[in-house]
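Homework help thread (please don't just give me the answer)

Our assignment gives two proteins as sequence + structure token strings and asks us to describe the second one. The first is just a warm-up. Here they are:
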Amino acid sequence: MTGFFDDAAQASLIVAVLLLLAAAAACGVQLARVEHPQARRLAQLYLEPLSVWCLAALVTHALAVVAAGNVTFFSLLVPICMGLAAVALRWADDDADEPAEPAEPPRPQQPEPLATPVRPASGSLWSRLT
């Protein structure tokens, strides 16, 4: 059974690395303020799920390492550092959403004067029909 957990630990670590790289790319698009609107929208949309799934893969890796009985300092240090990196990518994206300079509050516009109503010159419109 430990062979199964060894394989699961290796596979989940590979998945976690790929998810972390994809989350880093999405965060890079956000921080670099790329001009392409579709790329920015996709990066903003997928950064949080990528980092959450990376954390889930890292927890799976850590549990599989413990279940396989291969617990060492280094085997648990790698997922902890990668998890901190995934969380840091989400915080970096939150900082990128803030505008560089605070915008001035909009000035209230003066209401336009109302037009004067037009009155018929020869009385009511209904008086002509009778």
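The one we have to describe:
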Amino acid sequence: MVKHKKKNEWLEWGKAIFIAILLAFFLRTFVFATSIVEGESMIPTLEDGERVIFNKFIYLVDEPERGDVVIIKRPIKNYVKRVIGLPGETVKFQDHQLYINGEKYEETFISEEALNHTGNFGPIEVPEDSYFVMGDNRAISKDSRNGLGFINADDIVGRSELVIYPFDEWTMIK
């Protein structure tokens, strides 16, 4: 009787561990993952070496929105950038001011210094099924203006949600 009870207990533990591993694999593959920020192109929002959790599921049910901080898949490395222009929009930057479809857009997420270091460009029309992205540290960012080009919707892996490392800097990403 005692042997049978121990065997059932081990079987229950084994099932629980198997289910936990399966659930963790599912969440890691389809819902959440982590990424390490490399470089200073997203300062002040994100800094070099920070580890972020990003939501992989969100863009299966919704589209990226202006202001989202996204992970972009590229063959050599992934990039973290902010969505600025949506499919079909016209983006222009002139005299320290961003214009979307001819209307001023206030970028509350970057510093005045970053605005002052953004050179004039455009107007640029964003193709359908593509996005125009920029880093928050415009002076040094490789983005849609200078190397990354338009970002295809399929290349956006997920939306950055939370800084989890360093531990004393846990914060939601806006």
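TA reply:
I won't write it for you, but here's a hint about the kind of observation we're looking for: Helices lie at 2-31, 58-61, 112-116.
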